[in-house]
Amino acid sequence: GPQPSGSDGAAKSHGNAIAREVRRLVDAGLEPLTGVPMVKSRHLELPLDELPDRARLEETARRNDFNGENARRQLKIIDRDGALPAHVEYPVTTWTFGDDLAIVFLAGEVVVDYAVRLKRELDWSRLWINGWTDDVPSYIPSRRILDEGGYEAEFSQVYYELPARYAPEVEDLIVSTVKGLVTGAFAPRAALGPSPFHRHPMLDPERLARPPALSDAERSALEQRARAVMSDVRGGKTPVAAAALALALETAQNGFARIESNDGGVDSWFNYTGTKCLRPYVRQLERGATIAWSTATPKRVSGDRACFAFAAGVGYSSQPETEGFHLLIGDEVALEFDIVRAPARWTDEDETVELLYVPTWTSSDDSGGFFFLTLPTSRVTEGKPLRLGVRSRGEGSRRWFAVDYYTDAARIARETLRE
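Below the sequence we write its predicted structure tokens.
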């Protein structure tokens, strides 16, 4: 879905953008294809993951919802065929016009990861990929989507009368089949470089560095939440001391400039204002998974302490609890912290490094707000950005940390948490 959306103006803007690109391509000149295409097809059997047994289906069938309805259908299949299907039939077709163009036809609602991967492992300049072709067996998730779970990986299967989610190997099976059908003539050329259109259009640094434009109602709600949080802080109802937060707000420099590395992903979720925006994140699915970023170039620091502010959030408290996260300064572990939905304070053993968190948006599972990292000035080099990071200490949980792209977080925090 194109963003932004939700208004006639947004729709017209996207339509005009498409029209301008079509005109640009046509005006640049098109290359003729000579001869008829070479057509190849292959039918795959996409394996399903662990199938439910009859007892489990009978239990689910008692429910009066989509899952219950699907379970009742699966029981009828067992009664009719003696067993549930262990795979899904899946057609893959390619048309190749000599070495000039390969068109790939993939069945089903294919997630974008397939286009991104195929245009990385084949020559993107001569590759045209189509979904929704020949058949619609289901959503076709990638390994990433299956790892993340959710709608495309799991619940959507009920609409296609399938008894289980796909096994993780379906992505490699489809990709290797496509590459085998188009042959080595479409191997990527090193001189071509990566495709220029796989950078998410919402990841424009200037766009992401700007706080969202809030409606009057949204701004009023944010101000009310911020006043309530600050009232609790001043009243001593939180581990965050009012004096410490006041000093952090006064002295904080901008603690985010750009992402340096990310073992997680980028997704849209609620930020400190309670509005959705794209945010890079890391989960506790795998021990050692890390997201790292650089701060703005530090200004001269007076005294023996320096403070950096960054907008961020944590969440999914209903997921299994793990050992939490490490906060990294450079490559060194500074302290341990975990997800919370109220103001919090963490320090290292010597209490020389302090991390304050003040959430201004919360839900039953998540929160978003501002982190303030205070550390000795001896760990800061004037004129050289600081490298910060967050690393998972646990595994098997989808608990997450996300940092926002706002490069002016110190100013935003002061304005948001003003007295």
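The chain has ten helices and 19 strands.
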